[in-house]
From TrEMBL:
<feature type="domain" description="ABC transmembrane type-1">
    <location>
        <begin position="36"/>
        <end position="315"/>
    </location>
</feature>
<dbReference type="InterPro" id="IPR036640">
    <property type="entry name" value="ABC1_TM_sf"/>
</dbReference>
<dbReference type="Pfam" id="PF00005">
    <property type="entry name" value="ABC_tran"/>
</dbReference>
<dbReference type="InterPro" id="IPR011527">
    <property type="entry name" value="ABC1_TM_dom"/>
</dbReference>
<dbReference type="InterPro" id="IPR027417">
    <property type="entry name" value="P-loop_NTPase"/>
</dbReference>
<dbReference type="GO" id="GO:0005524">
    <property type="term" value="F:ATP binding"/>
</dbReference>
<protein>
    <submittedName>
        <fullName>ABC transporter ATP-binding protein</fullName>
    </submittedName>
</protein>
<feature type="transmembrane region" description="Helical">
    <location>
        <begin position="139"/>
        <end position="164"/>
    </location>
</feature>
<keyword id="KW-0067">ATP-binding</keyword>
<feature type="domain" description="ABC transporter">
    <location>
        <begin position="350"/>
        <end position="585"/>
    </location>
</feature>
<feature type="transmembrane region" description="Helical">
    <location>
        <begin position="170"/>
        <end position="190"/>
    </location>
</feature>
<dbReference type="Pfam" id="PF00664">
    <property type="entry name" value="ABC_membrane"/>
</dbReference>
<keyword id="KW-0472">Membrane</keyword>
<dbReference type="InterPro" id="IPR003439">
    <property type="entry name" value="ABC_transporter-like_ATP-bd"/>
</dbReference>
<keyword id="KW-0812">Transmembrane</keyword>
<feature type="transmembrane region" description="Helical">
    <location>
        <begin position="33"/>
        <end position="51"/>
    </location>
</feature>
<keyword id="KW-1133">Transmembrane helix</keyword>
Amino acid sequence: MNTASAPEATGAESLRARETLKALYGYVRPHRWAVALGLLCALAGAAGGLLQPLATKTLVDRLSSGGTIGTILLAMTVLVLLSMVAEAFGAYVLERTAESVVLAARRSLIGRLLRLRLAEVDRMQPGDLMSRVTSDTTLLRAVSTQAVVSAATGAVTLVAAVVVMAFLDAVLLGVTLGVVAVVSVAAALVMPKIGQAAERAQAAVGEMSTGLERVFGAFRTVKASGAEERETARVEAAARRAWRHGVRSAKWEAVLGSADDLAVELAFLAVLAVGGARVASGDMPVSTLIAFLLYLFYLMEPVYKLVEAASHYQEGAAAIARIAQVDGLATEKTEKQDRQRSVRPRPTSVRFEEVSFRYGPGLPDIHQRVDFEVPGGGMTAFVGPSGAGKSTVFALVERFYEATGGRVLVDGKDVTKWPLSELRSVIGYVEQDAPVLAGTLRENLVFAAPGATDDDIREVLARTRLDALVERLPHGLDTPVGHRGTKLSGGERQRVAIARALLRRPRLLLLDEATSQLDAVNELALRDVIAETARETTVLVVAHRLSTVTDADRIVVMDAGKVRAVGTHEELRAEDELYAQLAATQLLTSAGRG
Ligand SMILES: Nc1ncnc2c1ncn2[C@@H]1O[C@H](COP(=O)(O)OP(=O)(O)OP(=O)(O)O)[C@@H](O)[C@H]1O
């Protein structure tokens, strides 16, 4: 059997039991009064149960002495009803609280996930991160309230029952506890196995989400590659792993569940034997034996509760460990800020001072002492072979990653000194694959500038030549564009992405040109948009088209993580061998020297 790979399975081990308990307390703390109320109700219910055998003993004693039993019967009925009401109310309070714990955990996870640093997201799988929000938090439901209350009521009622049993007959209690102790040791050995299986099952659920996310992220490619069956098998394998570990957890839970039954059954037989002998010898009245046996069955309840609490705890601890891993990931510090959109903004300058950068420890240097200066305004193109580090320049300007050496300055100020949200608010960024989000065209346009007015939108639509498209669409701006904008053409998606960036009225526009060639009309339109924008904004373009560079005020030629030359098209064509080679082909990046 394949027992392999639960990539995150070490989580529970790494998070020590004390930390798990601390984290659990953190979840319960805001709801402690509700949990206390639930506990009180559960205890009231349990107390009702605890009094029953004593009432039964009194009833039997009265019957034997020929007394009346009406009042006792009435009292027992009221007791049963009251304890039922208390238990039902307590259960509701706890379930409600459990949902609130899940909500709080989800809210904090969601808030955290969207603020994660890009380097962390590069390391993790988005599908797995999603499953922590959807699936792992669900497991908190039982552990945060039910397990806490079950453990507390179980412990209290167990002690109370033991005290009453000791008062009834110490010898029989000794027999009972002896049997329970033996079975408890066996149960304690089983516990960690449940936790381990639960964590592996949750990790497999994460892998399943990762697989699905991968498929839907490239749905057409999957179909076009005829990869449906292979991808189905991949996701199914994770589903089967989740099943296998789930079943393993169920098996140990069943063992644990029967262990508590066994404890009580064995204790019952032992008490019956020893107690029967003592009644026969006249050392003990029969009513005491009956009451003791009833307590023994009553004991099932707290023992069952303790076992249930323990297995919920094992499952919950697995979830807590996985959630805590997200808490351990580095996030960005962003502050909310009101943007001033009315005034025409001043273009910013950009400067790289001897910038070195690698994407992570142990990865190669992508930038090696990159140094260039771009004054405010105008258009600067970055060219160079594929992988030279051009898009990485943009990632560092946006501070998606931080330079490992040197400084990146925007408007003369180190990007690490800018408040992050302020830095990004002056930048408009168009990614290379120009992502469009599910939703309407309008939602996509105002995504980076939620306060944009209809006039702003109209102006930008005209500039990006999207007005004709809007007129054609059945619901105009309110037409849904499909998952990732699949209902738009590639050129339209790119122009939507540019319009979105322009609506932000950026002081600096970062445009990572798509490698695909646009048709002549679109190319011309795009060229005009960039030229127009460059009049009032600093525009940096990772250029893949000759037309873009011939228009540029300056061109930065990059090669293997270094700036090789800076100049205009004419200058570079005459002076730089690589640039001359690149420019000789229409598609600038394909002439890589490899
Ligand atoms: N998130 C990342 N993690 C690790 N390595 C990365 C990451 N992003 C990019 N790289 C690596 O960094 C190098 C430079 O990438 P970059 O995207 O800056 O190149 P580029 O010059 O823009 O290339 P292209 O013209 O093909 O878009 C590449 O070799 C790439 O493999």
